[in-house]
Design goal:
293 residues, eight-stranded mixed β-sheet, 18% strand, globular
Length: 293
């Protein structure tokens, strides 16, 4: 059975909650959750990599999940998240890590690599993005493919600014069921993570009211022109039906020298749940290729 521990790390004057799985036999995998504002819980399948000899560390970013929620909301930025990640890596003594970022965590992983790639053995994005404007544009394109009655509900309520009515939220869920997670029912960890995000200020402040309406402080972030500076082995993952579309994944692959890309044909945004066994196999093979084992 995989060893599992949890605790709090003192990071930049705050407590960040983390969970660790397995032992460091081949290396350390550090996972970054999305949202921004979700929690580490939905990344639970990454712990499968402990069976391949890796210690897997997941944590809640500042203001998320069980981590401290500061009164100063100006700390909820991509730059601060980068520094939190680096401080946590150093505090826990993780050494050089394989960094995996999901969704916004993919954007964070790219930003971290641009600042601290000397501490990386490899970089993996899962439904990640380099350009928020482009990813947002792609999600709006996907929205237009929804059933006419769903699209009509979304358009009508958005025009009136009524984004909390039950009818609107039901229509949003229709988008999520196609492009966020196609499993039925959803894994409890997914439901829990989204519920926690709704109770914290981070998601609304940084992202916006929902996945495809990005009106928060990250809305203009675009790292595309800087991707060529990333020189670590990189794997770009995503689902065929991903809300962060294959076009967005391809943009990352093209931008990072030598990056590889794998698409999961039966998945949307969380391939580590939707195609769990294949996901583990793909990632473990990549990690072994990097480590020469």
């Amino acid at each position: 059975m995989t060893e599992e521990t949890e605790g709090y790390a003192q990071v930049l004057g705050f407590r960040l909650f983390y969970r660790s799985f397995g032992e460091t036999r081949r290396g350390v995998v550090l996972g970054l959750h999305g949202g921004p504002g979700a929690t580490h819980d939905y990344l639970r399948p990454l712990s499968d990599l402990a069976k391949d000899g890796y210690r897997v560390v997941l944590f809640d970013l500042l203001g998320c999940g069980r981590s401290d929620v500061p009164e100063d909301h100006s700390l909820f930025t991509l730059d601060h998240n980068v520094e939190e990640t680096e401080a946590l890596r150093a505090t826990l003594g993780l050494g050089s890590v394989h960094l995996i970022g999901s969704s916004y965590g993919g954007l964070l992983a790219l930003a971290y690599a641009l600042r601290y790639q000397a501490h990386l053995r490899s970089l993996i994005t899962v439904g990640g993005l380099a350009s928020v404007p482009f990813a947002s544009q792609e999600m709006q394109r996907l929205k237009r493919t929804l059933a006419p009655e769903v699209l009509m509900t979304l358009d009508d309520h958005e025009e009136r600014g009524d984004l909390q009515s039950p009818a609107y939220l039901h229509a949003v869920e229709a988008f999520y069921r196609q492009f966020l997670c196609r499993l039925d029912p959803w894994p409890p960890e997914m439901t829990q993570s989204l519920a926690m995000a709704a109770k914290r200020p981070v998601y609304a402040l940084m992202n916006g009211p929902n996945e495809f309406t990005i009106t928060g402080t990250i809305r203009d972030i675009d790292l595309t022109s800087r991707l060529g500076a990333i020189r670590v082995p990189t794997l770009v993952l995503g689902g065929r039906y991903d809300e962060v579309t294959p076009k967005v994944a391809e943009q990352i692959r093209q931008g990072i020298p030598g990056a590889r890309r794998v698409e999961f044909e039966q998945s949307s945004h969380v391939a580590f749940w939707e195609e769990r066994d294949r996901f583990r196999s793909v990632v473990a093979d990549f990690l072994r290729s990097v480590d020469g084992q």
